[in-house]
Amino acid sequence: MIKMPHFKKYFKNARFLLPVTAVLVVLLVSGCGQLGAKTNKGIDLPEIYVGTEGVDAQFAPDTIPKATTEGSVHYALLIVSNKGAAGVDPKALTILARDDGAAFKFEPAVIDSGNIGIATLPGKETNPSGYLDSIKVKATANDLGGKGAETNLLATVCYPYRTNLTANVCIDTTLGTPSFQKVRKPCDAEKPLVFRSQGAPVAITKIEPRQASGDGYVVPKFKIFITNVGKGRIIDKRGIATACTDDSKNADKEKSGVVSVDIVGLKDENLKCTETEKTITETSADDYILCEYTGTDLNKDLGVFVTPLSIGLSYGYKSTSAPVHVSVEKGVIQQS
User: Fold this and answer.
1) Of 72, 109, 209, 222, whose CB has the highest number of CB atoms within 10 Å?
2) Which H or E run contains 259?
3) Are residues 46 and 166 in the same domain?
4) CATH number for the domain harbouring residue 145
5) pLDDT digits 0-9 by tens, 150-183
6) What is the residue range of 7's domain?
């Protein structure tokens, strides 16, 4: 088992964590006590923590005429938005502007910390309606030998992101204790918690509680399932600078799918987990980590109660925008 970073220190220093009021709301709407709205599709969270998107970059429709000619110069508008919960430093982004028919030359083709020109990209935690900005990109239609072409404008963005969840879990210190009468309990410590999203492209979709017994105390364990719920790919967060560039099409394959488990905390204490980095295959039932409470203070006379379980994940993510179709027709090319 691997010991996670200290719970209190992590949550004190991490900028991406939920505001205090938001944490209280999350605790009220999630957990085994059925305190919030719950359907067969998952526990409902506050609106800012709903959704499967993070950062997006795409060419604005009609930013280039639907029909243009060889040699034409256009200044295309690239819309960059953050539709997720967590904020992102714009200088951590890399964006590749391209077209699938090789009909345009883009300047700049690669947008990164040196030329992005965006000061801030907050998430819904601080700006509930989301946030967007724009970048101008010079797009020159290539000389296609008078043949013209049909092409699609595309933008691929690579960025670091985080997923955070705080949910009430049920602790039952009486499990396994003989009882001669049926007792109504305030919550069910054996019932899984199911979630749809947390306002990020990677989500904790299920928490399955487990429990073992020590000498006069119980040991809670949690099987935490992690899923790529977005439309892109999980990439190594240490390779974001090269994952989107032309000459590194295969650079992100080696550690594709790697999610860092930054913190799993219960009762203000960090848990020991089987892994601090988990490769999400998206095809396996093994896309989970198992975390265990190591304290001995959950004595068997404490009864049944709920307490917050907090989880923090970080990763890199890569996604490509919806295509914007353009026809490039035969034109008059100026000879230099």
Assistant:
1) 222
2) strand 258-266
3) yes
4) 2.60.40.10
5) 999 999 999 999 999 999 999 998 876 666 456 6
6) 2-52+161-319
